[in-house]
C-alpha cells in the first residue's frame, strides 16, 4: 500500500474514527485503525466491538491532494498514528511493507510504526440494505438530542440505557426513560415495513458528533443485532440492545388539572438559579407553586440558604392551588433541548408527573418528569 494525502484532511478523519477505538481492549488489534487504500480513495475503520466508525476520503475532490500509488490495507496503532499525523506539517506519504511496517513521510520528517495484518481485523457486520430508512440529518440530530438525555445511566435495566425507535404507519416514535423521567419525539418518515429497535445512548451521542456539520440525508439500515447509520463519507455501526422495552404510553396522563403557558428561556434561567440551592437534596429538589397567578420557583439548603422567585404566567387554566417538588436538573435538561419560545407545563396534582409540551400543534415532543418527595 502506498498513497499521499492532505495532512489536515487525514488528521481529521483519523480523529473521527479514533473515537470508536479503546486502548483498554484485551485484543491488541482493536487498539488500531484499519487503513484501506483503493482506487476510489482511502477508507479508515475503528471499532471497540460495540460501535464501528468507518470514514471514507474520496480522491474525486482535487482539493484533498490524494494520490493512490498502490492499493492495499494495514492496521496501525490509533494512539500513535493519530498523534503523529496531527503533528506533521504538510502532505503525508504512507507506505506499507510486506512485513507490516508503516513508513510515514512528511517533508523532511521520516517515521515508521509497526502494524498489524489487515486480514486479522474484524469484518464489518453484514447489513441487509434493502430495509432502508432515510432521514434528514438535522431532523435526526434534533430527535436524538430531545430524547437521549433521558436514558438511564446505570446498567440495572439495560434496555433503559438506549433510545427506543419505533417505525410504524409512516411515523418514527423515539422514546427514552430512566423510570423517573421520559422524553418522546414523533416524526413523519416513510418506511417500507414496521420495525423497532433500541440504540445505545453512547452510540447516538457519537452519531451526533460525527454528523454535526452534515445536513444531507442519513440512511439507516437495521439487521439482527446491529444498526447502520450512513452518509457519503461516514458509516457508524452500532450494536442494538436486546430486550423488551416497557410500554411507556401508559405513563402519560390523559387529563390534567392545571396547564401553564410559560416563556421557555425565562423559565430555564429561573430553574438554573434554583438548582444552585438544590444540591443538598438527593434529587436536587426544587418546588414549583402558583402564587397570585404567578409561578413561584424555590429551593433551599440548610447550609447555603434559599432562593425564591416569581415568574409571569402567559396563560393559566385549571386549578391554581398547586405545589410540587421536582428534580431541578431533570427539568433543566429537558428545557435545554426545546427550541420553542413558549411551552406548556401540564400538572395533575402534587404526586403525579408533570408533562412538558409545545404550544404549537406542529411540534411533537413530550417530556414527563415524576415528582420527588420534599421530606
Concise account of the structure shown:
The protein has 375 residues and is α+β, with helices and mostly antiparallel strands. It has 3 domains: 2-120, DNA Polymerase III, Chain A, domain 2, CATH 3.10.150; 132-171 and 191-249, DNA Polymerase III, Chain A, domain 2 (Roll), CATH 3.10.150; 252-369, DNA Polymerase III, Chain A, domain 2. It has 6 helices and 26 strands.
Account of the protein in words:
- The chain is an alpha+beta fold and 375 residues long.
- The chain has three domains: 2-120, DNA Polymerase III, Chain A, domain 2 (Roll); 132-171 and 191-249, DNA Polymerase III, subunit A, domain 2 (DNA Polymerase III, Chain A, domain 2), CATH 3.10.150.10; 252-369, Roll (DNA Polymerase III, Chain A, domain 2), CATH 3.10.150.10.
- The chain has six helices and 26 strands.
- It has helices at 7-18, 78-86, 137-145, 201-210, 264-275, 328-336, and strands at residues 2-5, 32-38, 41-47, 51-58, 67-70, 72-77, 92-96, 101-106, 109-114, 132-136, 162-168, 171-177, 181-188, 195-200, 217-223, 226-230, 234-239, 258-263, 285-291, 294-301, 305-312, 315-318, 323-327, 342-347, 354-358, 365-369.
- The strands form four sheets. The chain has a nine-stranded antiparallel sheet.
- A hairpin with a 2-residue loop joins strand 8 and strand 9.
- Helix 5 (264-275) runs antiparallel to helix 6 (328-336).
- The longest helix has 12 residues, at 7-18.
- The chain is elongated.
- The mean pLDDT is 91.
SSE order and pairing:
Blueprint: E1 2-5, H1 7-18, E2 32-38, E3 41-47, E4 51-58, E5 67-70, E6 72-77, H2 78-86, E7 92-96, E8 101-106, E9 109-114, E10 132-136, H3 137-145, E11 162-168, E12 171-177, E13 181-188, E14 195-200, H4 201-210, E15 217-223, E16 226-230, E17 234-239, E18 258-263, H5 264-275, E19 285-291, E20 294-301, E21 305-312, E22 315-318, E23 323-327, H6 328-336, E24 342-347, E25 354-358, E26 365-369
Helix pairs in contact: 1-2, 5-6
Amino acid at each position: 500500500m502506498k498513497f499521499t494525502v492532505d495532512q489536515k484532511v487525514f488528521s481529521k478523519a483519523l480523529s473521527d474514527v479514533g473515537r470508536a477505538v479503546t486502548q483498554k481492549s484485551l485484543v491488541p488489534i482493536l487498539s488500531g485503525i484499519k487503513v484501506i487504500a483503493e482506487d476510489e480513495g482511502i477508507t479508515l475503520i475503528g471499532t471497540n466491538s460495540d460501535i464501528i466508525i468507518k470514514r471514507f476520503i474520496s480522491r474525486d475532490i482535487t482539493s484533498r491532494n490524494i494520490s493512490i500509488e498502490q492499493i492495499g490495507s494495514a492496521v496501525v496503532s490509533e494512539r500513535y498514528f493519530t498523534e503523529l499525523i496531527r503533528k506533521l506539517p504538510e502532505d503525508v506519504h504512507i507506505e506499507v511493507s510486506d512485513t507490516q511496517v508503516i513508513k510515514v513521510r512528511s517533508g523532511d520528517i521520516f517515521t515508521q510504526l509497526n502494524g498489524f495484518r489487515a486480514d486479522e481485523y474484524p469484518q464489518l457486520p453484514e447489513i441487509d440494505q434493502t430495509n432502508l430508512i432515510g432521514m434528514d440529518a438535522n431532523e435526526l440530530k434534533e430527535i436524538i438530542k430531545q430524547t437521549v438525555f433521558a436514558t438511564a445511566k446505570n446498567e440495572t435495566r439495560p434496555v433503559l440505557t438506549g433510545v427506543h425507535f419505533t417505525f410504524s404507519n409512516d411515523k418514527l416514535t423515539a422514546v427514552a426513560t430512566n423510570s423517573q423521567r421520559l422524553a418522546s419525539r414523533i416524526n413523519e418518515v416513510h418506511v417500507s415495513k414496521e420495525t423497532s429497535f433500541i440504540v445505545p445512548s453512547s452510540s447516538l451521542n457519537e452519531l451526533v458528533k460525527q454528523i454535526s456539520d452534515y445536513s444531507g440525508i442519513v440512511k439507516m439500515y437495521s439487521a439482527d443485532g446491529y444498526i447502520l447509520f450512513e452518509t457519503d463519507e461516514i458509516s457508524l455501526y452500532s450494536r442494538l440492545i436486546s430486550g423488551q422495552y416497557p410500554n411507556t404510553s401508559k405513563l402519560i396522563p390523559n387529563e390534567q388539572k392545571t396547564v401553564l403557558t410559560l416563556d421557555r428561556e425565562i423559565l430555564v434561567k429561573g430553574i438554573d438559579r434554583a438548582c444552585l440551592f438544590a444540591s443538598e437534596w438527593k434529587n436536587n429538589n426544587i418546588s414549583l407553586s402558583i402564587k397570585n397567578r404567578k409561578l413561584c420557583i424555590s429551593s433551599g439548603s440548610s447550609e447555603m440558604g434559599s432562593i425564591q422567585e416569581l415568574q409571569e404566567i402567559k396563560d393559566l387554566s385549571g386549578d391554581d392551588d398547586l405545589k410540587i417538588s421536582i428534580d431541578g436538573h431533570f427539568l433543566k435538561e429537558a428545557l435545554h433541548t426545546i427550541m420553542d419560545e413558549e411551552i406548556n407545563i401540564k400538572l395533575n396534582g402534587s404526586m403525579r408527573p408533570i408533562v412538558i409540551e409545545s404550544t404549537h400543534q406542529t411540534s411533537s415532543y413530550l417530556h414527563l418528569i415524576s415528582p420527588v418527595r420534599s421530606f
